[in-house]
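Example record used in the benchmark description.
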Amino acid sequence: MKWSDEAEAAVKKVPLFVRKRVRTRVEKEAAEQGKHLITIAEVKATQTRFLNKQGHDIKGYQVERCFGQSGCPNRAVISDQLATKIDTLFKEADILGFLRQTVTGNLKFHHEFRVSLADCPNACSQPQIRDIGIIGAAVPHVSGEACSDCEACIDECREDAVVLMKNGAGPRIDYRRCLSCGRCMAVCPTGTLTTGQTGYRVQLGGKLGRHPRLARELPGVFSADQVVNIVRACIALYKKKSTAGARFSEILTGADVDRIAGQAGVQPISQ
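Model output (structure tokens):
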């Protein structure tokens, strides 16, 4: 549906964490009225109705996805089943009921616990600013196959994490730089670079707002089952420590981050 310039400018002023919902609602209500152009009038009318009834739309948590499921060529992993498992965890934990018991007054969208899954390190779903951010990872491995020295992996790597050794020794990976995007393996014509492990990086405690904070990353790459255990441990910590609607990032200490993996009983599948 077409948007006027004024309408586009107005919706960009809506807080990021509800902007997509507002935009979808504007288009839905305009379509129901038989309109084909969104103007500032439609934006203001929908925004007013939306904010007045937001308490009815809150479910206590949000599990957000990137564009990977629509066929993005950059996918390092396929997180569809993991997203479903995480959604089930939050339903079983009754986060909405917990918020209703601990928050005075009406619930608002900023009270919701937010999880974001990105299928590759491009992180279109912004996991770095969510309570829990999960990023797909494909860790490269140097196999025994002979390298042709074509340098395709070097050209593809945006992190300068691949180095071709002299005397035909093939590539070496600098894992301190590598983000495990999987692109070097995808372009390797000889199979010298293959996938060693696939899994997920996990980041905790990000948020926007008046005091923004980037999430802290747990060291290593974790399997889907390990991620589920980590999320379960985070939910338990949140329900134990959060009062009056405090965000996960506000109650999460550095010591908590260091203990989470241990509390979940997991060791990363790759460091």
